[in-house]
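Reviewer 2 asked us to include a model.

Predict the structure of this chain.
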Amino acid sequence: MDSSANPTDPIWRLTPLIDVVIDSPRLRYDFRWEREWRVNGDLVFPNGAVAALLIPDASGELEAVRATVGNYLFVTPDEDFFWAGNADELQEDAFKLLIDEFLEKFITVDEAGLPLDREAEYGLAAVVPIIEATDAVYELFEELPEPIRDSLADQIQDTSQLWCRRDDVDHAHE
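Predicted model (structure tokens):
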């Protein structure tokens, strides 16, 4: 660039895209962290190519994001989330996030160690409330659309039909 004094030289068409990094004892000029690439037109990603969308402050912008990107689970930095689309198009990893959240709050009746009571409704002493999988999912994820909750409950029922709240079990054992 220094050797080209001619302002019509082709090198000058590239200079808006080049930012020289200077790191010397007298001067530091490094804006690599600020680089961005722009594409003229729309970017289209195939289903499954988008792993996450990070939104610094999603308040008031969720509907615009949902309309723009389609059928995915979005988790904000403060761990709030919302669903767009239908259950059939959701990624396995997205359901795993919800199942992990479910398992933090609920425990199977087998793991809870409830005593047997053959005359009780589920054959177990109701030392703590016993909740069917679908009811537990609806309790924890009341803000999700019904088809999503139903799909989630189907997956959770593969582990167990009956669940207890972990807090209830912890207090019962104290």
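The two ends are 76 Å apart (CA to CA). The chain has seven helices and seven strands. We have added this to the supplementary material.
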